[in-house]
Amino acid sequence: MKALPVEPSNAPVAIGSRIRAARQAQRMTIEQVAAATGLTKGFLSRVERDLTSPSVASLVTLCQVLSVSIGDLFLVPETHLTRLGEAPHISLGGEGINERLITARSERRLQMIRAVIAPHGRGEAELYSVDCEVETLHVIAGSFVLIFSNDRYELEAGDTVTFPGREPHTWFNPTGVEATVLWTLVPAASGG
Q1: Over 70: is that where the pLDDT of 19 sits?
Q2: pLDDT (tens digit per residue) in 118-157
Q3: How far apart, in whole angstroms, are the C-alpha atoms of residue 167 and residue 134?
């Protein structure tokens, strides 16, 4: 694929919110940063609000004090949009379930799966587990029953259950009405 030529821009890059986030991550006040850098509180406040741009020398000093690399301030965050209609269908098993992976396939930190369960749809007959550390189930609409070896949760729209990902479980829709749930797996399940 041919690269498109990029015109240089004189537009200032908005880095103030990232500087503020770095300061807050270090649990420092503007006063503490001012004392450590020799810059004024007013100047630092204007920098954080993108009302002024620091000189290269000031930026280097500021980044050293905040333990952040200059390059990180200018990185474009990797963002991925998944439209529901374009989300890939997946199948983790069960009957009467339509599952879509709504996070990027490449995302490894977590997975979100939107599932629409037909009336009386159900998971596996035997308890099963998912290869992740934490699993969260949120009921968007309808009713849903989550079953563990020693427990059972009868859930309604708005309810959320969080449990260890490797905990054996199964589920079913107890009603004659469709249910919609959101599964979140952290980190993403192996092989997802």
Answers
A1: yes
A2: 999 999 999 999 899 999 999 999 999 999 999 999 999 9
A3: 9
134-150 burial code (b ≥16 CB/10 A, e <16): ebbbbbeebbbbbbeee
Query: What's the CA gap between 55 and 40, in Å, rounded?
Result: 14
* Cα dist from 147 to 25, 100, 178, 180, whole Å: 40, 22, 19, 17
pLDDT tens by residue, 24-50: 999 999 999 999 999 999 999 999 999
Q: Exposed, middle or buried, 28 (CB in 10 Å: 0-12/13-18/19+)?
A: middle
Q: What are phi and psi for residue 153, nearest 5 degrees? A: -115, 125
pTM equals 0.70
CA pair distance 53, 13, nearest whole angstrom: 9
Q: How far apart are CA 129 and CA 149, in angstroms?
A: 11
Name the one residue in this structure whose structure tokens are 């500087």: 19
